[in-house]
Write a structure and sequence with these properties.
Layout: H1 2-9, H2 16-22, H3 33-44, H4 54-69, H5 79-92, H6 103-117, H7 123-136, H8 142-150, H9 160-174, E1 180-187, E2 194-202, E3 205-209, E4 217-222, E5 228-232, E6 241-245, E7 250-254, H10 258-277, H11 282-508, E8 525-526, E9 529-530, H12 535-552
Antiparallel strand pairs: 1-2, 1-7, 2-3, 3-4, 5-6, 6-7, 8-9
Helix pairs in contact: 5-8, 5-9, 6-9
């Protein structure tokens, strides 16, 4: 029954003869795992072409394993939601048996569900959960993942319907390759009327249905690299229009608002760009990149572990070498200790033998020292006599040298006395000559001194006379200044009187002009103003001064 159902779901022809031939009775039983797996691979899986409904295939596999493994405790999700989580697990799990989902993929799935529920992602809560998970194992099995999502640990505050809708949205995106879906208005090709349809965008096709239950399909828009999408202006009372151009047809569609219109245009354009580049859907490409990154990290970790093992092996080898060297050193130390013991024993024997020889040598040395001391005493007496004789010889030589030096000094002193006597007589004659010259010079100096004294007395008398004349002139000058002040006052008084008289005359007569007398003699001007005497008087005074000066000289 299992084989027939598998063939039906996978669109593979069933061969009962091959089944009966493969499962003949053997020692392990006709339906053992060891016997069925080769049959499954050879007669069923190798014939699969890929043109089967993957959802139905997953549902059959779910029917086989869910009843036995699904938790009996109540969950916040339904069996249908648990089936979708099971299918998502198969998509995100690692490619090795037993299947597990690693923490990175768990985080990716929970973020998707949280985003679909419209809630905020709790990174700190997941980090604590990830730390607790990494300490025990590498990842979760599918049943543990269903329990995690069904327990509501990461969907607190959300009701069952919201969680179910989030699971369904993630299932449509990851498993059914639904990139976008929603209600829009479509313009008919024949009747040109606008009808509301439920559109579903997949990597290479846009399908539209009567409603979102997907039961009544109305048509498809096949997408390829030649398709394009562009916005249209509002017309015929319809807004938020855009056009999908294909090779054979074009489709006019109206979104509910501008935001939906822009989202649909961007999603369709992204799908067309992926078809042109030959790239897989975004979620599959992202999964492949995450898988490659994990493989790269795993390879780096394995390489690091390999290097650590090599280092550990090298360390162990070094430890073994060090242990061998330590043992060799211990053996060498034991040999060295034995040799040291023998050496010490030999040294003790040699010391005893050397002690006896040393005693004998000491006695011989003592006798030789006594003989040497005696000889040394005799030698010392002989040397003392020699030193006394040498000392006497040196004293005699010094006495002779002193006598010779005394004679030379006496001769030198006698010559020096004779030379000094000659110099003294010459200097005495010269001094007598200088004495005579000095006496003559003194006599001449006395006469000159007397003459200079006379001249000085004459000059002092002349200076006294000049001082008296200067004092006389100063008195005369003061008197002249007093006379000048009196005359000046008189002139000012006269000028004032004349001015007042002239003003009066001019006031009364107007035409009378006064004639003022001029100066008869020119006045002399000194540093203190007009002089008090005339030029003739000044000449007479100069002659008088010259006569007094000649008389004094």
């Amino acid at each position: 029954v299992l084989s027939h159902n598998l063939c039906t779901v996978l669109n593979v022809p069933h061969d009962p003869v091959a089944l009966e031939e493969h499962f003949r009775d053997d020692d392990e039983g006709p339906v053992s795992n060891q016997g069925y797996m080769p049959y499954l691979n050879k007669f069923i899986l190798e014939k699969v072409q890929g043109n089967f409904d993957k959802v139905e295939f997953n549902r059959m596999c779910w029917t086989l394993c869910a009843k036995k493994n699904l938790s009996k405790s109540p969950l916040l999700i339904s069996d249908e939601d648990a089936f979708k989580v099971w299918v998502i697990f198969n998509f995100l799990s690692e490619d090795k048996y037993p299947l597990i989902i690693v923490p990175e993929e768990i985080e990716y799935l929970l973020k998707k569900l949280t985003e679909a529920m419209g809630a905020g992602w709790q990174q700190e809560q997941f980090d604590h959960y990830k730390i607790a998970l990494n300490t025990s194992r590498e990842g979760l099995s599918v049943w543990e993942l269903i329990d995690l999502i069904g327990s509501g640990q990461f969907s607190k505050g959300m009701d069952r319907q919201t969680v179910s809708m989030a699971i369904n949205e993630v299932f449509n995106e990851l498993i059914l390759d639904v990139l976008k879906q929603g209600y829009m208005l479509k313009k008919g090709h024949k009747r040109k009327n606008w009808t509301e349809r439920w559109f579903v965008l997949k990597p290479n096709i846009i399908s539209y249905y009567v409603s979102e239950d997907l039961k009544d399909k109305k048509g498809d828009i096949i997408l390829d690299g030649n398709c394009c999408v562009e916005a249209l202006p509002d017309k015929d009372g319809k807004k938020c229009l855009f056009l999908i151009k294909c090779l054979d047809k074009s489709f006019e569609i109206s979104a509910s608002d501008k935001k939906k219109k822009q989202e649909w245009i961007q999603a369709i354009q992204t799908t067309v760009n992926l078809l042109r580049a030959g790239s897989p859907p975004p979620h599959k490409e992202a999964r492949q990149k995450r898988k490659e990154l994990r493989q790269k990290l795993l390879a780096e970790q394995e390489e690091l572990e390999r290097q650590m093992k090599e280092l550990q092996t090298a360390n162990e080898n070094k430890q073994k070498e060090l242990e061998t060297v330590r043992k060799q050193l211990e053996a060498a130390a034991a040999r060295a200790a034995e040799e040291e013991k023998k050496r010490l024993q030999t040294q003790v024997e040699l010391q005893d033998r050397f002690s006896l020889e040393l005693e004998r040598e000491k006695m011989v040395r003592q006798k030789m020292e006594e003989q040497v001391a005696q000889k040394s005493s005799e030698l010392e007496q002989y040397l003392q006599r020699v030193r006394e004789l040498e000392e006497m010889y040196k004293q005699l030589q010094e006495a002779l040298e002193d006598e010779k030096q005394a004679r030379q000094d006496e001769e030198t002193v006698r010559k020096l006395q004779a030379r000094l006597l000659e110099e003294e007589s010459a200097k005495r004659a010269e001094l007598e000559k200088w004495h005579l010259q000095q006496q003559q010079t003194i006599q001449m100096t006395e006469a000159e001194k007397q003459e200079l004294e006379n001249q000085r007395m004459i000059k002092e008398r002349a200076l006294q006379v000049a001082m008296q004349q200067l004092e006389q002139l100063e008195l005369e000058r003061k008197e002249a200044l007093e006379q000048y002040e009196e005359v000046k006052k008189k002139l000012e008084t006269a000028a004032n009187n004349t001015k007042s008289w002239k003003d009066k005359v001019a006031h009364h007569e107007g035409l009378i002009r006064l004639i003022e007398p001029g100066s008869k003699n020119p006045h002399l001007i000194t540093n203190w103003g007009p002089a008090a005497f005339t030029e003739a008087e000044l000449e007479q005074r100069q002659k008088s001064w010259k006569g007094k000066k000649a008389t004094s000289e």
